[in-house]
Each structure stands twice: as C-alpha cells, then as structure tokens.
Amino acid sequence: MKAIIVEDEFLAREELKYFITNYSKIEIIDEFEDGIEVLKFIQNNEVDIIFMDINIPSLDGVLLAKSISKFSKKPYIVFITAYKEHAAEAFEIEAFDYILKPYSESRIVSMLKKLESINNHKENSLCKTNIQSKINLWKNEKIIVVNMDDIYYCVAEERITHVFTKKDEYSVNLGIAEFYDSLPKDTFFRCHRSYIVNINKIREIIPWFNNTYNLKLQDIDYQIPVSRSNIKEFKQLMNI
C-alpha cells in the first residue's frame, strides 16, 4: 500500500515515519505540510492511505478529507491530531481512524496492522473474483483462458460443448448440463436442452411457434431457441 504523510511538525512526522517503516509494509511515497499541495498531488497520483494532522496550513485536515471523500477512488484517511473535538466529524466522512496526540506506540502499531489486514482481505477477494470470472476452454489442441463475459452462447454435441464468443469457437469435454453447472447463473441461462445463452448478450426476443421464443444476440447473426419447458423460467428471468 502507498501512503502519504500530511504533518507540519517535523518531529511528529519523523516519529510517525519510523513506526510505519518498522511496523508495516506500507510505502511512504511523499510528505506534505500544506493541505492544498496534498489535494493537487492526489488528483494526479494514486494513494491508498493518508496519515494526516488536522491543524495544517492552507486547508485544514477536515476540509481536505471532505474533498477527498468525493473522489471515485477514496484512500483510507487516518487522522493523527491533538484536537479531539473533530472526532465525530471525522467519522462522518468515514475516516479509518482518529488517533490523539501524544499517541502510544501500541496504538499506532494496532492501527497499522488493522490497515494491512483489511487490505490483504480485499486483495484476496479480488483475486478470487478474477479467477472465478475466467474459464479454461480448448482450441486447436491448446487450453485458452477465456473471460466468461466474452461468451455469447454454448451448443451441445453429445459429450462435448461448443462455446462461442463474438469471433471464436472453443470446446470443452463436458456435457452441456455439467458445463452449465460451472457457469454463473446470474449471467447464463440454459434456455434449451442443447443451448446455453449469455443473457447479457440478448438483443431481441422473438415470439416463435408453440409459444416459444428465438433470441437474437448482439453483434452476431445467430438465433438461439428457448424451449417450451424453459419458457416460464425465462419469462421470470427477463421480466416478461
């Protein structure tokens, strides 16, 4: 994680740097004494954490935090200050922590460990999500890693399932029912015993014979049937 320190007292800044460097893996990428300079910096640089005093020149810490809270990607804000009267206001803008000076070593270390623990949990969750959004398919005797969102539809052929993206065709050595079990149900629907469709790729729903539908997909000239046995579930899914 990348951090900046906003503190106009040299000794307080040096003490905080010591604890961060020795008790965490957080990287300090810059230091500031002035609130306006901080605002300019974070508009052009990615920061995960801001360790900040409230009584700083140009723009006080609370006003600076309020401005930062409007950013689409919000860094964690840790106030380290002698002013206890701003605590309620700080937590209204969702500050990560509010530490009063003179602070203890154990208090700072506890806060650093909590920051790293939360960040590790976020990274693990993101990694898991990224893995789950991909799938291994076969093409030309090679295993190709494909984003699930790129799949338009799938077609059964005995014990093989053919998988189609906008431009490519792949296969997997699974029956369509077994393959369907591996797909996220909020994105894919088995509309026919031989077909799976990505519901996010449907462009048109065309009424067909015997109260069934054909589905036209985005970007490709192909229609997918919806069987009578799946019509009720399909209507519920598509709010028809």
From TrEMBL:
GO MF annotations in UniProt: DNA binding; phosphorelay response regulator activity
Main function: May play the central regulatory role in sporulation. It may be an element of the effector pathway responsible for the activation of sporulation genes in response to nutritional stress. Spo0A may act in concert with spo0H (a sigma factor) to control the expression of some genes that are critical to the sporulation process.
Domain HTH LytTR-type: 135-240
Keyword RNA-binding set for record: no
UniProt-listed InterPro entries: CheY-like_superfamily, LytR-like, LytTR_DNA-bd_dom, Sig_transdc_resp-reg_receiver
Gene3D superfamilies, A to Z: 2.20.25.10, 2.40.50.40, 3.40.50.2300
CDD domains noted in UniProt: REC_LytTR_AlgR-like
Domain of life: Bacteria
Keywords (A to Z) from UniProt: Phosphoprotein
Stated name of the protein: Stage 0 sporulation protein A homolog
Span of domain Response regulatory: 2-116
Residues with the 4-aspartylphosphate modification: 53
